[in-house]
Amino acid sequence: MAAKDEKIGIIGSGLIGRSWAMLFAGAGYQIFIYDIESKQIDSALVDIKQQLQRLEKEGLLRGKLNASEQFKCINGTLDLKQAVQDAIFVQECVPEVLEIKKKVFKGVDDICDANTIISSSTSTFVPSLFTEELKHRKNALVAHPINPPYYVPLVEIVPAPWTDPNAVKRTRELMEEIGQAPVCLTREIPGFALNRIQYAILNESWNLVADGVLSVKDVDKVMSEGLGWRYAFLGPLETAHLNADGWMDYCSKYTNTIHSVSETFKPLPKFEGPQTKVVGQQLEEMVPIQELQSRRNWRDLCLTKLAALKNTLTPK
Length: 316
Ligand code: NAI
Description:
This protein is α/β, with parallel strands linked by helices. Helices cover 52% and strands 12% of the residues. Strand 6 (140-145) and strand 7 (154-159) form a beta hairpin. It binds 1,4-dihydronicotinamide adenine dinucleotide (NAI).
C-alpha cells in the first residue's frame, strides 16, 4: 500500500494526539500534528518513532506500511494553518477545558474549508457546547477514542444537533478505514455511551466496597475474572441472548429477578469523603503509584495480545 496524498490535521500532541497520529499513519495519510508547545511536538515525534519501531519489532504494528514509512507520514508543526488548510479531517486533542476547546475550534473553523470534518476527542463535552457559533458547524462532531486508542478500537461518534449526517458517515468510514470500531450515537447525550455504562459499573463497585461486601481487589476480580471475560467478545445484550433460549426467554425468566435486585441498588454515590481514601489505599496496595507506568505497559501488552486473538476468532 502506498502513502496517500490526503491530509489529516491533529491539534494537540499529547497522549491522545500521538495515538491518533499513529492510527492515521497506519493508513498512509499525511499527518500534521500541531501544538502550541514546541517541546511537546519534539517529544511527540521521538515518542511516536520509538513506539512504531517497538511495535514493528514485536510484530504488533497496525496498518499496512512499515514503521519507517508510517513515521514519514507524520509531521510536527507550530503553524495551525499548515495543520488544517486542505485537510480532509481535523482531530482536536487539546486539554479537557471548554474554553480551550472553543478557542481551538474557532481557530480551525477560520482556516478550514467546507469539506473538512472538524472532530473533537473530548471525553466529557457534548459537541453543541463548543461548535454552535462555527461557520462550518455542520461538519463538527465528536469522535471520542478510548484510552489507549492504539489498542482499543472503539470510537464514539457523536453529532451536535446541526451536524450533517454526511459528516457522521464520512467519519465512520474513515474510522473503519484506519482499523477502529466506530459507533454513531443518533444524538448527543452526557457521557456518550461508554462512560454512561462505565459510570454505572463504577457506582455499583463503589457501593459494594462502601457496604463492606467486597474488597477493592475482589470487586475488580468480578470484572477481570468474570464479566470481563465475556465482554471482550460479546456485549451485555448478546450475553443475555446466549444465556437463555434467546432474549425473549431471558426476559421471561429473569425480568423479575433483575428488577428486584435492581431495586436494592443504593442511591448514586459521590466519590468523596473517607471512603475515597479507603479505596485509594487498597488500590495502592495492588499497584503502588510508582508502578503505574509498568502496569500500563502490561495492560497495553495484554490488549495487543487480545486484539491478535480476536482477529483470529471473530467471524468476518
Ligand atoms: P494531554 O494533556 O496529554 O495533551 C494535550 C496537548 O494539547 C498538549 O500537548 C498541549 O501542549 C496541547 N495544547 C494545549 N493547548 C493547546 C492549544 N490551544 N492548541 C494546540 N495544542 C494545545 O491530553 P490528552 O490526554 O492527550 O487528552 C486530549 C483530549 O483527549 C482531551 O479532550 C481528553 O478528554 C481526550 N481523551 C483523553 C483520554 C485519556 O485517557 N487521556 C481518553 C479519551 C479522550
